[in-house]
Amino acid sequence: MKGGPGTASPGHPPRVGHNRGVSDEVTAIDDPDDERLGDYRALTDLALRTRFEQPHGLFIAEGHQVVTRALRAGYRMRSMLIDAKRADQLAHLADGAPCYAAGPEVLEAVTGFHVHRGALASFHRKPLPAPAEVLAASNRLMVLEGINNHTNIGAIFRVAAGLGFGGVLLSPDSADPLYRRSVRVSMGEVFALPYAYLDPWPDGLKQIGDAGYTLIGLSPSSGAIDIGEVAAAERARPALMFGAEGPGLTPAALAACDRTVVIPMHAGVDSLNVAAATAVACWELAQPAPRHSATVENSDSHGGPHV
Ligand SMILES: C[S@@+](CC[C@H](N)C(=O)[O-])C[C@H]1O[C@@H](n2cnc3c(N)ncnc32)[C@H](O)[C@@H]1O
Questions:
Q1: Is 254 near ligand 1, meaning CB less than 6 Å away?
Q2: What string of DSSP letters covers 118-133?
Q3: Of the residues 80, 196, 269, 271, which has the maximum number of CB atoms within 10 A of its CB?
């Protein structure tokens, strides 16, 4: 197979297409091996895409809404690949970048899946901000350690944006927020929030306190206080840190926290999915004052709600 991740870049090939009655020129492609489709090759192969996308400075957005959001956020399009049947509705999004159109069989042969959203676009990445810029961008941050699941990363960015958290710091081993699935699950919120990798990890966590944040670790383990008890002063500039599905936060990350908190669980359930935990925690800690004080008896891990 010609082209493909690591071997091809569509660049700006000569326009050989035809005008389809919309203002943008569309190039019809019927050969799945066409080199100009290299950016879209094997999109379901996570390992391959991970090796290809970041080093080549690109990412893939999928669907009209997400492509539009990427453009609005100032990302520069490399090319677009659309379902030929929907060219009239989608081609205008290419906005000067090469726009390729193909039938469903060709789209599936190139990408590895049925492209039912009709539009894929390849974008240039932008340089990431430094952690200090993310720290300065907001009064509420999310900090993610080892979150290597792209669905969770996307869901977490959507939660952060929707609940008023203005930036995300990630440990270097966290998943790529601009991976296609993260972008799609976030509904494009990965474009809205500044994020940076905090390296070295965990030593870099010190910068968070230096910037005036209270670093609050979310941990279902014993010893943490009920999230509803966090004092108003600690809610003023919170940086909420979450760990990965299996291990949770590492001992080193927990040691760096100013405070660790638990979302009380019921019925013997030991923890929430991390994205669900971010939603609860961001909502709760965006409230200016605690709902109940530390003098109220804590519920145990299987206990009922405070009254
Ligand atoms: C599935 S949990 C990991 C469970 C892991 N066994 C542990 O002890 O942390 C993934 C992440 O979600 C957050 N989380 C999930 N449930 C939580 C809860 N009840 N209280 C506080 N944080 C929670 C934590 O940040 C945790 O690291």
A1: no
A2: SEEEEEEPPPPPPHHH
A3: 80
| Region 271-289 average pLDDT | 96
Distance of CA 298 from the midpoint of ligand 1 (Å): 18
Q: What angle do CA 217, 222, 225 make, to 5 degrees?
A: 55
Residue of 274, 283, 299 to test ligand 1 pocket, by largest number of atoms within 8 Å of CB:
274
Kindly give the distance from the C-alpha atom of residue 293 to the centroid of ligand 1, in angstroms, as a whole number: 22
Cα three-residue angle 144-262-170, rounded to 5 degrees: 5
pLDDT tens per residue across span 10-30: 333 333 344 444 435 899 999
Cβ atoms of residues 273 and 185 within 8 Å: no
- Regarding the beta carbon of 248 and ligand 1, being less than 6 Å apart is answered yes
Pocket of ligand 1 contains residue 160 by CB under 6 Å: no
Alpha carbon nearest to ligand 1 atom 9, residue: 248
CB atoms within 10 A of CB 126: 13
Flag whether pLDDT at 305 surpasses 70. Answer: no
For ligand 1, is residue 249 a contact (CB within 6 Å)? yes
Cα–ligand 1 centroid distance for 189 (angstroms): 23
Average pLDDT, stretch 177-206? Answer: 96
Which atom of ligand 1 is least distant from the CA of 264? 19
d(CA 247, CA 249): 7
Give the count of beta carbons closer than 10 Å to the beta carbon of residue 266: 11
Domains and CATH numbers, the chain: 18-124 (3.30.1330.30), 131-285 (3.40.1280.10)
pLDDT digits (tens, 9 = 90+) for 227-236: 999 999 999 9
Q: What is the mean pLDDT of residues 196-206?
A: 97
Confidence band (pLDDT; 50, 70, 90) for 155?
very high
